[in-house]
Every structure is written in structure tokens, then in C-alpha cells.
Amino acid sequence: MDDVLIEKIKNGNDHAFRLLVEKYRDHIFYTVYGVLRNEKDAEDAAQEVFMKIYTSLPQYEKQGFKTWITRIAVNHAIDIKRKKMRRQEEMNIEYEEASHAPPGESVEFLVLKRERQKVLWKRLDELPENYREVVEGFYIKEKTYEELAQEMDLKVKTIEVRLYRARKWMKKHWKEDDFS
């Protein structure tokens, strides 16, 4: 049944594609929903998956259609999830940058900030070597990502990633009490 529809679709029969969509709509939706866990995102992703299936049909070689479309759906949903996580991390980084130096800082804020910098300075040697320079540059010397990237001859994204990983490392290895 599927092979007959696929041949008709390859020959330009749009009605055959609609029949295929009807047959597999729920399967594709629940497949992407299983990865994305969001109904709206899954609806959008399912439509995108059917577009990918349509454009990829010439490469289909009768190796089990349902398995083939499931693989396309899962891979697409994983890509969407990765992009979403990347955007979330970027938003977190932007938020941290924005809160790094608020305008009109209070005296108390500045004193606490200096104290944290002193503690961080003392404990800098405990950090893994590849994080040390970016942590020192960003938190103690208060340089921007761009300045650090230029000085270290790295990409800005590399600086962001190293700072993100350094923060994760510090959260894992140091107690918050050490900084209060």
C-alpha cells in the first residue's frame, strides 16, 4: 500500500501524499512529542517532518517506510530540542552579562562584589587551567567576552562556553558559603 502511494507521489500525485499524511499524522506527532514534550512544538515539528519526508522521498529505497519516517521525525525533533537548549543557554549567558554590572551600583553591592573577587582570586589556582584565564579576565578584571576573545586569540563562542563550563565546575566543587 505505502509503496504504491510513494510511487504516485514521486510521479507528482499530491492526493497520494495527502493520503500518506493522513495515515501517519498521529504516528509522527507522537514520535516528535515524545522528544519535545510540548504540544505546540510537536505540531509544528510534525508539519516540518512531513515536508522533509516529501522532499526526501526520491532517496527512499523501500527499506521499511514507517521506520524511515520515524527516523526522520526523531532526528528532526532532536535538532529542534538542541537548538532550543542552545538558545536557553545563550539567554542565560546574556542575563548573567546584563546582571554582571548593573547601572548605579549601590555601595553594598560594590563591597560584596570586591569581597567575592578577593575570594575568587585566592581560589583561582583550584580551577582547571583552561578555565582560569577566562574566569580571571571576566570576573576579576571585568573584561568583556570580546576583549577576552581578542586577547586569547579565540572565538567569542569559545569564551562563552569556557565561562559556562567554569561556572558549572565552581558550582559543583565550591560551596556557596565560601563566597558569603
TrEMBL record:
Residues 20-86 form the RNA polymerase sigma-70 region domain. SUPFAM superfamilies: Sigma2 domain of RNA polymerase sigma factors, Sigma3 and sigma4 domains of RNA polymerase sigma factors. The keyword Transcription applies. The keyword tRNA processing does not apply. InterPro entries: RNA_pol_sigma-70-like, RNA_pol_sigma-70_dom, RNA_pol_sigma70_r2, RNA_pol_sigma70_r4_t2, RNA_pol_sigma_r2, RNA_pol_sigma_r3/r4-like, WH-like_DNA-bd_sf. Residues 120-170 form the RNA polymerase sigma factor 70 region 4 type domain. Keywords: Sigma factor, Transcription, Transcription regulation. NCBIfam families: sigma70-ECF. Belongs to the sigma-70 factor family. ECF subfamily. This is RNA polymerase sigma factor SigW. The lineage of its organism: Bacteria, Bacillati, Bacillota, Bacilli, Bacillales. The gene is sigW_3.
